Amino acid sequence: MAPLSPDDAGDAGGSHHDVQVSLDVGPREEPDYLTVPVYATVTNLGPDTAENVRVTLELPAYLSGRVSNGDVSCGPPGSTIECVLPGLAAAETAVVEVELTLPPSPLEPFPIRASAWGDGVELVPGNNQTALRTSGGRLRLSSGGCSIAAGQGASLGLLGLLLLLLRSWRTPPRQRRARNSRMASTARR
């Protein structure tokens, strides 16, 4: 489907733009595996500047996320994160980086949703929303081509628990105490 021109949008006032959002996930830090960076990439495909672009990330209520790049104005951490980009010029891209905190207990499949909307006329509204969905301990993009691993260490079966115990047994006590305190402090956030 070809983007609409401003003439095709009628006489509606305001800017004419096409804001697009996508989700991606970065590498996790070992050994805790309890935090995962999630990136919402927002691009304005033009032709005008998109003003007051509202970016929303929705997580299940039992998960928590916080924005970790300081150049974006966002609300408080939690299961719904709302950010505002004051202006996004045509062909400009902005990234909202969220640090997702996973619980230490096994996870059921869950979605992460992102949407982005600017003031004015949205020429192609079909690319303003996307979602990641977990399946078998992995996050997969439900409407696109991205897949990421987030379940390793988060979903422990009997074999995983046995391997964790073996690893703890072979880890020197000082390192084990440091790792356990990091995991406990992450779980409290």
TrEMBL record:
Signal peptide: none annotated. The chain crosses the membrane at residues 148-169. Residues 18-129 form the DUF11 domain. This is DUF11 domain-containing protein. Gene3D superfamilies: Immunoglobulins. InterPro entries: Ig-like_fold (IPR013783), OmcB-like_DUF11 (IPR001434). Keywords: Membrane, Transmembrane, Transmembrane helix. Coiled coil: none annotated.
